[in-house]
Every structure is written in structure tokens, then in C-alpha cells.
Amino acid sequence: MSVARVTEISSTSEKSFEDAIKQGISRASQTLRNVKGAWIKEQQIDIEGENITRYRVNMLVTFVLDDASANEVA
Predict the structure, then answer these.
(1) pTM above threshold 0.85
(2) Given this structure, which CATH class describes domain 4-65?
């Protein structure tokens, strides 16, 4: 049996939504073990004049919790 947890993160990029997503997943994977998926909750942009200056995504990242019995020392 496995148990998962979901945590919400926000990530930004000056390039695109896709780049913001990739950066967010990359960073989450450095901190969280067993990242298994993500759901993009919101997409936002910052605008200056007529130009998009920043792409922002809020995402829910799912990761599987470690099995407690695997961490026990025999």
C-alpha cells in the first residue's frame, strides 16, 4: 500500500507557462522524494505595457510518502 501527499507550489518564468512548469517540477523534485504527478491549478501572467513579462503557474504536486517500515533499522 502507498500513501501520497499533495502540496501546492508556485513557479514563474520569463519564457512561457511550459518553462514555469518545468522549473517548478525540477525544484520540487530536489526537495521532495517520489514526485509522481502535478495538476496545474492556475496560470497567470504579468504585463507591462502590451508585453507579457512573466508567466506564473500554481500547481498541486503529488508525491508518495516513504514507507515507515523501510526506514526502521533491524
Answers:
(1) no
(2) alpha beta
